[in-house]
Amino acid sequence: MADIVIAGVMRAGAYSPNHIGNDTAIFNAVAEHLRKRGCIVNVYNEDQFNKNGVEERVIMNMCREQASIAKLQRYEDEGRLVINSGFGIENCTRERMTRILMGNNIPYPESLIVNTDEAVKPLLKKAGFQSCWIKRGDFHAMHKEDVSYVRHAEEAQEVLQEYFFRGIKRAVINKHLVGDLIKFYGVKDQPFFFWFYPFDQGHSKYGAEAINGKSNGFSFDVDEMKRICQQAAEELNVVVYGGDCIVDAEGKMQIIDFNDWPSFAPCRNEAAPYIAKAIINAVKKHSEDRRR
Known about the structure:
3 domains, four-stranded antiparallel β-sheet, four-stranded parallel β-sheet, alpha/beta, 38% helix
């Protein structure tokens, strides 16, 4: 395993809102597990990566900047192995994610994709939306205002206008779902899967968990949740993932967010060896495919 040399590219702080320490910790934990398995891991920050690139043929990364994603995609087109894929990272931006999940019949809220300068009140009323969530469609959430809960169509129109003034051209509107909010973490094709109720444990990024509030403990099938998440990871082309879903009183699950390489804050020590194993397995498969 000593011949595996990996470039590890850390996430820029601007793309780790309220989680800079947690993102760094999971990255370092995975790098350490890879080193214990005999790999060489050279670490770069996202700014270094953008300015100078890397020579390594294997890249593990937590990148989020658009320039970084474009560079990762070019490297993949040249035949390098990238985890998470630059194409997968781009797929996790809101509009792409919505189209991919809905297009593959993965449980997801009723949604509209709109321009931020259009009149949406008639669309929302026709669709039967009352309370809903407005999310910037072009990129990952960087600020609290990039994900907005609204109570009615008039308020939705006001929020969209604010998005337009901020230079955000597209938005996704998700119908609000009533039920238990659950946060999950997983690694594609690995047995690791972790879930918990974020509001009950005081885990928050922007405070939006308070909208659904304290969990009711609705019964649901954990194996089915994992299956749905693994399918989503496959369709979105990400290996290391996390996200949020809503479970209603009947146990129905719907994904409301899916992220490429989150912080794994509540389960970092448990997740890190599985992420390292997934990377090594991908390196072996990549090498075999190139020899064919």
